[in-house]
Amino acid sequence: MVPKFRAYIKNTDDLDYNDVPHKGHFVYGNLIKGNPNDDVDAIVGDLIEINDEYVNVEWWCSVEKGSAEQATGLKDANGNMIYENDIIKYFGGNERVKIKTTYGIVFYDSEHGCFNSRIQNEEHNKGGISPLDDLIVGNVHTNPELLEAQYED
């Protein structure tokens, strides 16, 4: 699998002006990490040409260092690709979890070397990702109210 990345862009005016393809406020493509001392990375389109002197890509968009989110390689019950920082709703992937309104944030779990979800309640810390059962209901950028709503019950 070729890693896929996305980045949330608050102001899409520059994207439209520079013909950078995007879906809403998200740019999808490949990640080029900037130098360690720089504060930017880049999401880029496909490679057009490469030789010993230069690299040419279809398009590029600079993003805040560390803000790119990687695809997990898993799709939810509706067939949508699951990315880091997506909010998923549990429908029985973990029997310890109270199913009613339990949400989780997808993250890379470096302790276990896999993608996981952080359950947003006080009873549990981590859930899993069950592609056949879970649904993406939003993401932390555009739907933070989903995480706040479950504490209001």
In brief:
The protein has 153 residues and is mostly beta strands. Helix content is 7%, strand content 41%.
Overview of the structural elements:
This protein is mainly beta and 153 residues long. Helix content is 7%, strand content 41%. The chain contains 2 helices and 13 strands. It has helices spanning 13-17, 145-149; strands at residues 5-8, 26-32, 40-44, 47-50, 55-57, 60-64, 69-75, 81-83, 86-89, 103-109, 114-119, 126-127, 135-139. The strands form 3 sheets. Strands 6-3-2-1-7-8 form a 6-stranded antiparallel sheet, with no helix packed on it. It has a 5-stranded antiparallel sheet with strand order 12-11-10-9-13, with no helix packed on it. A two-stranded antiparallel ribbon has the order 4-5. Strand 4 (47-50) and strand 5 form a beta hairpin. The longest helix has 5 residues, at 13-17. It is globular and about 50 Å long. The mean pLDDT is 83.
Question: In terms of topology, how is this protein built?
Answer:
Layout: E1 5-8, H1 13-17, E2 26-32, E3 40-44, E4 47-50, E5 55-57, E6 60-64, E7 69-75, E8 81-83, E9 86-89, E10 103-109, E11 114-119, E12 126-127, E13 135-139, H2 145-149
Antiparallel strand pairs: 1-2, 1-7, 2-3, 3-6, 4-5, 7-8, 9-10, 9-13, 10-11, 11-12
